[in-house]
Please model this.
Amino acid sequence: MLRTIRTALCGTVLAIAAHSAQPAISKVTVLTNTGGRVDWSPKGDVIAYDRVSENGYFEIWSMRPDGSGQQCLTCGKPGAPKRHKGNPAYHSSGQWIVFQAERDDFGDSGQGGTARGGFRRGGMMSSPSARADFFGTPGRGFVNDLWIMDARGDRYWKVATTDRRVGGILHPHFSPRGDKLTWAQRIGAGDAVMGVGRGGFGQWDVRVADFSVVNGEPKLSNTHSYQPGRKKQLFETHGFSSDGSKVIFCATSERGSNKIAFDVYLFDLQSKELTNLTDSPDEWDEHGQISPDGTKILWMSSKGMPLTARAAEVKTDFWIMNIDGSNKQRLTWFNDSKNAEYIKGGVTAGDSSWSPDGKHVVGYLIEDATKNLGKIVMMDVNAGRP
Model:
């Protein structure tokens, strides 16, 4: 058996040796060489993703699963936020996309609130607007609010506004039934400056709200806030269990001192039981995505690779485990120079999304975290099922 991967132009295939252990990936294909965080539509016919535009801001795009039909959903649209927009996620009906967006009200005449909220002073980012743009990307989420648009990007609604000085949003996701929405929200600066390795990320919590459509407009109600376990420095939500009873998220590790040593957790919304699925204080574990049948979790991990204090330097690959955290196995070998799957210079495996039938995963491979450069790949997955 051979596995294939495209590493240069979209469509280029490289044969690689298959690993005998199951689960396994049988093929990897590059869909676009410019992309970001991803989500598969419920019908499986469209993939939404964010990517950097020519003006330096992230916009939300869509494409077919073969990489064709790429189009910008938010570029120049009336009513759309004007700065960074990203982390799109589909509603189960396919009619709505939730996303996060940098606030538009940061001009260079700002009121100094951003600096008090933890922005770095001096240097190139001395202006509130420049600092907001740097830290307001979809991967950081500072000074972001929560938005919903229709699937074509014609109408927009801001559904949650965060504190202008210290607020932020990360990774909103609908529940499988579409009746709930979860996201991570920044609620305070704490002792942090905005940036990894100089005090952390500030204080965040996990939000869960009821979702409904009233007179053709999306609405949130009954919003609850959680800080499961100890008051971790960072929470980053990645969705619900298949029955909607649990939320999967990553958070700073309960042990160790490295600020980017995240773990992946499951939190039961009814019993409030918290399960640490990775429990690895010396590893970066993030972006847990539950398979459509609810039995597997695909996530990214730095296991077996150095963990530095700078996130931009850390390399990760995709791993898979059972829903209870057992049977952890490495799926990709992008950072193993002895493997034919190796990508020169290494990558950080980032956000991912399962296809509705569970046979494929689309993933974001970050090649330059500082410049926000990365590609989106399609991975054919044998998740250990007959």
